[in-house]
Amino acid sequence: MTKTSIVNIRTEPEIKKQVENLFSKFGISVSDAVNIFFHQSLMQGGLPFQIQLPKPNPETIAAIEDVNKNQNMSRTFESVDELMKDLNA
């Protein structure tokens, strides 16, 4: 048997439960999955996947573009009363 080292990982209990359930569908343990990740990281010379910020959906992009085009929509107000007067105008 080959020698092994122990790696302790902190994660939320619900996340642990979910990944255990997911990986069991592939017939592997969390430990197996972590080892696969380590091996792939070494083979890729870095993380074996791309890290990106989530992209907003088309509706959100359209709203952002609308605010950027119409500067009146991106005003700030000193009080709620001032905001309500503007909204009701």
Explain what this protein looks like in three dimensions.
By secondary structure, this protein is an all-alpha fold. It folds into 2 domains: 1-50; 58-88, no CATH class. The chain has helices spanning 13-25, 30-44, 58-69, 80-88. The relative contact order is 0.05.
Write the SSE topology.
Layout: H1 13-25, H2 30-44, H3 58-69, H4 80-88
Average pLDDT figure = 91
Rg measurement, Å: 24 Å
Rounded to the nearest angstrom, the distance between the terminal CA atoms is 77 Å
Question: The biggest beta sheet, please?
Answer: none
Q: Which residues form runs of ≥5 with pLDDT under 50?
A: none
Run of helices and strands? HHHH
Overall number of domains: 2
Shape: elongated
Share of residues in helices: 55-70%
* Share of β-strand residues: under 5%
Number of strands: 0
Main structural class: mainly alpha
Number of helical segments?
A: 4
